[in-house]
């Protein structure tokens, strides 16, 4: 790091002092020196109040800042587990424990404390971000192997994030339940924990099904899980189904409980539903879980396809309160992007949901209410991509649109249509694959808000009729025009937001956006709000929220509306019609290395502190109808960005090498940042 620009003295003397500090041997004990304190010591040296050896010691202490915890509290780090709990570490295996963490003043360390089953390895510590090969995420992580334990059973793991300013986040921060809770895992170094398996076949028999015998499959998943419980109990293990594996033979399986309506006991480990030999996502599916999903405390589904065939037809609906569901390496396919409530997963009361390495398509909305969405891909949906989700990492969403049909060149007939309906729109074949829903609307103009009127119904594959007196803005002037050609769009009245959170003003909780992280995520072709936050008017400041290394591109607004003690926008590329920051308190708003490809509009009335903004590039100019565009930060840059269609810097881009403060070691796709000066935006220049 070149520190010369930090100091008011010449750029020749100070780097020399730093070099001397690095190579010098000092007998003095290290003290805590942060940047403001160091600046004071330099001023003292300039005025002759301290000698050069003393200054060299102070610089040495500053350079060794990772071992320095200042007295007193600092900003609470934004930090979350990138770990799904209740996993097992078998003999010979290693599990990498990962936390994603950021703070305005930097992260000093993440400490991992492990207890149980004879563990005596002490606290494990990560001080830098590195690529975790198990999650494919750049994060703070340490390995934990089964051979570090002397007995088999459950263990507890806790994490504490410490910022370089002394701020702390741990399991008790904010009263708990906000991202770094103690997690339960299972270790099996002596192979004492069983892992019984049961097979399920659509032609199986619940009466003759047998555990650990692939030749005797059950017919229903519920009976297979309960069979695992009975096997464990009869063989001297606990009366639960912990660690069991249900293997589905190829076929389209219903999520049936086998008429076991009560909870099937579980304690500390997932029951996993996955494929059998010869099975894969293409030939093995789960569906029809409404009312029939077994009541399981810990349900994992791995490597299969979950399907919804109609409105409110769920592949999985576990109604057990406080249960957890983990969907891993699976495809979630809905009945169509414009089918209302075409969900594959329906959550029960107070449930926890985890998505890892999954693919979503043909749904109205995709990820909702999840604790983790990691390595998720979303395509071709009609509503929100990510809703009320606490950690989004390494994920992709594309083609988010509420539009059903382009009605350019359609014909409008107000009266006298042969069908007997009034206000008919006709276009050959436009409605052949369209099923009318009461929420559907037609709009004209360039945005969804213009002359937005309800659809009355479908007449044929060529025609629908509308209700011109039922327009969202009370206008309908286009529909009073003479018969003839119109340009319009048929719309589901969905939102298709890329990112969405809401608070008490929209019937949720203030905590729904507390300690949230969106990291290494790409959202493109969002046809409604690129991001929407709302309903937090009564909430106090969140401790911290972080958006890092994201590429966000859509056709409408990006709106921030949540008070926060610490809000981090680092190395993002944001392309939207307008980017609004509404009137909420944000005393520590850090914006570094962002490419803003649309007007940034501050509606806060001067309540936001932009002193933490620097090295951002703005491509917009001038005034917008909803306010004055701003370009805060020093230094900052303007003009054309010079990026390709994907968003990467071209060879002569002004984004290259502009950011001196490296806030993350790799870009949104894992390419290392250039430490001598990284590129502005989500993607590092790779010399292409």
Overall description:
- This protein is mainly β and 688 residues long.
- Helices cover 7% and strands 33% of the residues.
- It has a 13-stranded parallel beta sheet with strand order 11-12-14-16-18-20-23-26-37-40-43-46-49, with helices on one face. A 13-stranded parallel beta sheet has the order 13-15-17-19-21-24-27-38-41-44-47-50-53, with no helix packed on it.
- A hairpin with an 8-residue loop joins strand 31 and strand 32.
- Helix 2 packs antiparallel against helix 3.
- The longest helix has 14 residues.
- It is flat, with a radius of gyration of 29 Å.
Q: What is the share of helical residues?
A: under 10%
What's the β-strand tally? 53
Mean pLDDT: 89
The number of helical runs is 4
Instruction: Tell me the strand order in the biggest sheet.
Output: 11-12-14-16-18-20-23-26-37-40-43-46-49
Distance between the termini: 25 Å
Report the C-alpha radius of gyration, rounded.
Answer: 29 Å
β-strand percent reads 25-35%
Q: Spans of 5+ residues with little confidence (pLDDT < 50)?
A: 1-13, 15-32, 66-72
Please name the defining characteristics of this protein.
13-stranded parallel beta sheet, mainly beta, 688 residues, single chain, 33% strand, 7% helix, 53 strands
